[in-house]
Structure formats: structure tokens, C-alpha cells
Amino acid sequence: MNSLDLKKKVVQLRKRTWQLIYNHKNGHTGSDLSCADILVALYYEVLKQTPDTFEDKDADTYIQSKGHAVEIWYEVLADKGYIDQDDLDKRYSTFNSPYIGHPTTDIKGMEFHTGSLGHGLGLGVGVALAAKMDHSSKRTFVLMGDGEQAEGSVWEAAMAASNYGLDNLTAIVDHNDLQITGTTDSVMRSNPISNKYQAFGWDTIEVNGNDIDALVNILNKPNNSGRPRVIIANTVKGKGITVAENRADWHHKIPSEAEYQEGLRELDAQLEGLNND
């Protein structure tokens, strides 16, 4: 996809996620919106994986450690043909539905149960180490939140990844500076995150995490460092909808009717602007 089409895709998926959360009155709105560009970059330009090949030995693995942002991932998987869009729209967060509030292996395209923060990077280390041992070309990508960096298990995994020289592992930190109870600096300060990963022996890159072109460029950049790579993706929580941007209370807030309609107008205006480019 070209740059303009990728930007349109990001807005379209934000809109579908906004609608899904509003219609079913459940979801992690701010977290979904902040990482939309990251998922589009991965699934439309980076991951060597399709609905038919994602279980193959050499297919890339994606692990969403910040599993509470599952709604945007559902929408990406539906758009890419892993799951049925109509089924998702009808059954998300309903009784006996596989489309629950965190990733589950009941969903095609999701290889691990996640959502208990701090576990995803350890899973990624295991997958990447196994690929090394199998002489596989598989790459592993793990998306974490910045609030998640307070978990000690993250740093155990970071140390192991460096120890084993897992240059086939890329961690991405959705660095929006907010978590459920406030700013990351006020709850448990982790900044500067990049310095910490450097000290643990990682190749570290910072990027505007809401710039799809920059994300694609960096995620496709070969890692010849012999070290695991972490991308600190600086994002805006609630990106794309003014009422939700940079507000901790939108971590798990559901829009009112007025907020929902205003959000739709904003997203539609963004799409119209891109269509006129």
C-alpha cells in the first residue's frame, strides 16, 4: 500500500473500533486509538504472515502484550480476512462469544492469551529463541504499553533477550505517557525508557508512533546489531478523537451519544481530507 492508503486505513480502522466500542459498550478506547498506526504498519507492510500462513514455522509472530487494546486488533484481523467482520460486529463482548476483552487463541491470528501485563515480552523471548534454535527466518514482534514497563517480568525478559542475542526480536513500546490511573511519571516513572533498554543491551530507536511512514520505515529496517531491538513509539492516547486525546479517563471510557457522534464527524473529516490529497 502507498503512504496515502495506509493513512486512510488507519483512520478507517479507528472509526470501526470507535463504532465497535460504542455499540457494545465495552473496550479500552484510548489504548486502541493510540496504537492504530503501529498495527497498520505491522499488518499491512511488515509482518510476513497471512491468514493461511500465520501458523507456518517461518511465519512472523505478533504478540500484543498490551492485550486490553484488543478491539483495534480485532478490526485489523477482520479487515485482513483472519476473522469475519459481520460476526465480530454482532458478537463482540456478548455471552459465549470468542471476541472477549483480551486476546485469546480462540481467535484465528492470535497465538497467545495476553492481557495480564508484563508477560508478552517473555513469550516473545521464548518464540525468538526457539526460532534461533530451529534456524528459522521467523521474526517476533511484541507490542507493550509504557505503563507495563513497571512490571519486573519485562526486565527479566529484556535481560534474557540481550543475553541470547535475539536480533530476531523487536519490542515496540506504545509510549503515550498515560495509564489507567494517571500519567506514567506520576504512577511509576519509567522515563527515559530508551536509556533503560540500552543499559540492558538492546538496540534502541525512538519514533513518532502516530506517523505511519516513519513506523513502516523503521519496522522494515534490518537489524544487523546482533542485539534485540526496541522501538519507543511516542504516541497520543486517544489519537484522532479530540475528546479522548491525552486523557487518562479514556483508558476504559465508553463514549456518550454526543461524544460518539462528534468522534464520527472528526474521523469522517480526516478521511475526507485524505481523499482530497
UniProtKB/TrEMBL annotation:
Residues 12-252 form the Transketolase N-terminal domain. GO terms for molecular function: transketolase activity. The keyword Phosphoprotein does not apply. It comes from the Bacteria. It is an enzyme of class 2 (transferase). Its cofactor is thiamine diphosphate. The keyword Transferase applies. InterPro entries: THDP-binding (IPR029061), Transketolase_N (IPR005474). It holds the Pfam family Transketolase_N. CDD domains: TPP_TK (cd02012). Belongs to the transketolase family. This is Transketolase, thiamine diphosphate binding domain protein. It comes from Lactobacillus paragasseri JV-V03.
